[in-house]
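Q: What structure does this chain adopt?
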Amino acid sequence: VNRRADLDFDLADFRHVSEWCAERQAIVAHVVAVRDVIVNTHMDGEVEEVLSLRAGERIYMEQSAKFSLARMRSIAHAAGLRITRHWQAPREFYLIVECERVL
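A:
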């Protein structure tokens, strides 16, 4: 992000936190400011503040969900799709589905 957007995020200012969210049935990850932080951009040689966080404030990073085959069938159906094939690891560590549009 720093290189792409010419920002000055300092990794030492944040810690990574991942938590199980039962409502979403997913792991949700954030970075949390460990101190008050100001992030600046340096575009065209000008310094401009783009983000200010207080210690403890979070930035959402990602969500990783596990879906059962039954849940994926429901999601596919709601999207007008059907599952044509699926692959599931032993002990259901992951699931891959192939879908096609219902005509």
